[in-house]
Amino acid sequence: MKRLSRDVAIIGAGMSKYGMAGNRITTRDLFIEAYQDALQSVGKGIDPKQIEALYIGNATSDLFEHQLHTGPIMANWSGLIPRPAVRIEDACASSGVAFREAVMSIASGIYDVVLAGGTEKMTNLPTPEVTEVLAYALDGVSEFPSGFTFPGVYAAMCTAHMAKWGTSAEDLMRVAIKSHNNAALNPKAHFNMDIKDIMRDRQEKAAKEGKNYSWKFEMDFLSDSTQNPVVAWPLRLFDCSTICDGASCVLLAAADVTSNFTDDPIYILGTGQASEYPLHQRKELSSIMATKNAAGQAYEMAGIKPKDIKIAEVHDCFTIAEIIALEDLGFFNPGEATSDINEGVTKRTGRLPINTGGGLKAKGHPVGATGTGQVYEIWKQMTGKAGPRQVVGRDLDFGLTHNVGAHGTTVAVHIFGKK
Amino acid sequence: MMKDNNFTIAAYQGFIDDGKLMGSRCTKCGAMFLPLKPICDQCQEASMELLQMSGRGKIVAYSVIMIGPQKMIEEGFDRQNPYCSGIVELDEGIRIPARIAGVDIAKPIKETIGSPCRLEFTPNSNKPGILFFKILNELS
Question: What 8-state DSSP symbol labels residue A69?
Answer without folding.
Answer: -
